[in-house]
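note to self: dont lose this again. the chain is below, predicted strucutre after it. 479 aa total, dont forget to put it in the shared folder this time
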Amino acid sequence: MFNYYYYLLSIMMYCSEHKQYLSLMAVTKKIIPLLFVAIAHVARCTAGVNITTSIGVPFNIDFEHDDDYYYNDDQAPLPWLEDDDHDEEFSWVVQRTTIDEFVVNGVNLAQYRNTATKANNNRMNTTANTGLEQKPKTKPFLLYEDFDIHHLIKGHENWQELLTYRKNIQNPSLSFYVDKVARKRWLPEQGYDQAKVFLLHYANELNSIIEDEENEVAGWITNRLPRNASFCAKPTHSSELRGNWLVDPSEKVVSTDGTVLREEEALSKAPHYFTSIINTACGTSLARSLKVPPAKYESWALKNVNPGIVVEEKWSHYSDLNAPPEEFNMFVIWGRVWLVQWNAVEGQHRYHYAFILRNGTDSYRPNKRPPQYLPWNDMIRIAEELGAHKDIFRVDLFFGIPTDQGRNMTKNERLANSRIVVNECEIFPTTIFPDKWLADEGARLWRAGYRIGNYKVVENSEVPSNYKEIGVLKNRLTD
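---
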C-alpha cells in the first residue's frame, strides 16, 4: 500500500520543484490527507526497514512480506528524497543493502567504512578512516579526467549530493555521452547492437539541407518517416520521454510522451489516413522540438548538447508487441556494475520491477534471480565496457524484439529471437531508489574510490577528437 502513497509524494515534490503540472497548493490539498492515512497504515508494520523521508516522517516498510514491491517513477527526475542535513561527524552502519565485496583493480571498495567529517575537505591518499589495513599497492584505476570530481568530495555526501556534483560539472566532452546523435553513430562503430536507425540528424545538418523554417523542416521530416514500419521518434537533447513518439501503423496505435499505446478515436473512423495524419503530427512535433531547450533540471552536459532528432525501429516485449521491451538501467561505479534497475510497464505506468545486484541476486529478495532467458553475463560485460574509466555511469539496455519482426511469430518464437541492444547512456543517473539505504550504499561505493585513492587521472581517449573540437559527431558514412 505504501507504494501508491510514495508515488503521490514523488509527484508532489516533482510538481513543487518544476511547476509544470499543478500548483504546490493544489497538489498539497489533495495529497496531504492521503499521506496521513498512509502514515497511519504503515505505522502498524513491525518488521521492516525504517525510512525517513525529506519531511521527517518515519516509514516502516516490510519488504519481505510484500511480493509486489513496485516503485513508480512516472519519468520524474527524482533521486531518493532524503534530508540534506548531516551530522558533523558520523560513522558507517551495516544495513540490509550493504554489500561486502566490490573489487575494483584489486581493491575491495566495500571495505570502506564511511567515516568522515565535514571539516575534512582534502582528498584522502592514506587509508585512515577507510577500514583498510594498509594502503593499496595494486595497479590504479584509470579515471578519465573529465569525470574526476575528487576536488569536490568531502566524504559525507549522500547520493543526491554526489549527483549534484556531476549535474553541474562543466566539461564539454561529457556532452558526448548524452548526445543521442553522437552515441547512435558511435556505438555501431564500436561493435554494439542498437535499434535500426531510420533517420538521425542534428538540427544544423537539417538547416544545411533545407531552409531554416519550421514548416519546411517539419515537411522534410514527415516525408522521410516510415509509412509501413513501426517506429520510435524523439528529440535527442531531452530525457524522460519528452517528445517521444511510438507509432505502429499495422495496429493503428500511437503513443506520445511515454503514454501507453492506444488507438486514436478520431483516426479509427478513417484508418486509411492513419499514416499520413500521424506522420504529419509527428514530423511537426519533431521540428518544433529542435527549438525547445532541455529542461532546467537537466545536467549541464545535456543542456549543451546540439539539438537533433532520431527515428528508429520500435521494439517490443516478447510477450506483448504493444508493450515496450524490458529495460535494464545498469549502474556502473568505478567501472564495475553495482546495481541493475529492472523496469517494467503495466498499463500507463512505468515501474521499477526489481533492483538486482551484479551477481544476479535481488537486493531485497535474495532468493529471487533474473529469469534464465536473460543474457545476464553479456549485459554485465556491455555495461562495464561502456562504463570503463568512469567513476559513475549508467548504461540503459533493452531486451526484446523489433515489433515488426515479431509480428507473425508465436510468443516462444519471439522470446527465442529477443536480444540485448544498447538504448542510451547517462552520466547523471537519476532514479527513485526504493529506500534510503540503497541510495546510501551507492553513495558509499562512489565515494570510496575517491577516499581510498587507488586511481590515476588520465586523458579521455574515448571521445572522438572532432566532437571535442566542434561538439557534434559527423556521419562518417556520408560526410
